[in-house]
């Protein structure tokens, strides 16, 4: 089964592709789609998630292959911009490693690239133990707040998360926590903006530093007063960051530069 995707905006303009994080799907980009109407926007549900839930088993590498295939089918001669959050940002890194000339501009938001073998071993027993909580609304409320899912989208979030099988969640988490910067990322030719929230875990900020140091086309910023999910917490701010960087190479004055 092919990945589910939707197209919006100006089909004659540059292609802007959005890749969601784990635990959510393309609905997380609604505010970006509403803002970037002058671009040819494409949202994609990654394998086993959202409306691609019946696609082949998820892996970051397979997802990258599928997204590359889709972009090459629809891009024509356009510039390609890809924006990824968390799990989706890891897919962007994998894509740039596999096809170093495909993406003109990439926004890598909150990508983990420091594997933790001990945590990977704990995932299966932990999920099996807590799996009854997945369909619990109260538990979902708590989890949604971590991701800054607003009331507007909670029912969609709850429906998707409660329908996800434990084996799928285990597979996605293992891929996420095992991921490291692939060979070839240092050769990616596009311009890359790496972002991370100031309130995110130390490992996330160190991951952002690793990404920036791995490719000379990267510039990195730490966004103040936010954890994991700036695009949902403050979409207007996130949209302006993207817009100003793409159009004028300008970064927000309140952000901290990663060196």
Q: How would you summarize this macromolecular structure in one to three sentences?
A:
Helix content is 44%, strand content 16%. The chain is an alpha/beta fold.
Order of helices and strands: EEHEHEHEHHHHEHEHHE
**Major sheet, described briefly?**
8 strands, mixed
Tell me roughly what share of residues is in helical segments.
40-55%
Q: How much of the residues is beta strand, in percent? A: 15-25%
Radius of gyration: 17 Å
| Strand segment tally | 8
Distance between the termini: 42 Å
By secondary-structure content and strand pairing, the structural class works out as alpha/beta
The coarse silhouette is globular
What does this structure look like?
By secondary structure, the protein is an alpha/beta fold. Helix content is 44%, strand content 16%. It has ten helices and eight strands. The chain has an eight-stranded mixed beta sheet, sandwiched between helices. α4 (117-130) runs antiparallel to α7. It is globular, with a radius of gyration of 17 Å. The mean pLDDT is 95.
Detail the topology: elements first, then pairings:
Layout: E1 5-9, E2 15-19, H1 30-35, E3 40-44, H2 60-74, E4 80-85, H3 87-98, E5 105-109, H4 117-130, H5 137-146, H6 151-163, H7 166-178, E6 191-197, H8 202-214, E7 218-223, H9 230-233, H10 235-248, E8 256-258
Parallel strand pairs: 2-3, 2-4, 4-5, 5-6, 6-7
Antiparallel strand pairs: 1-3, 7-8
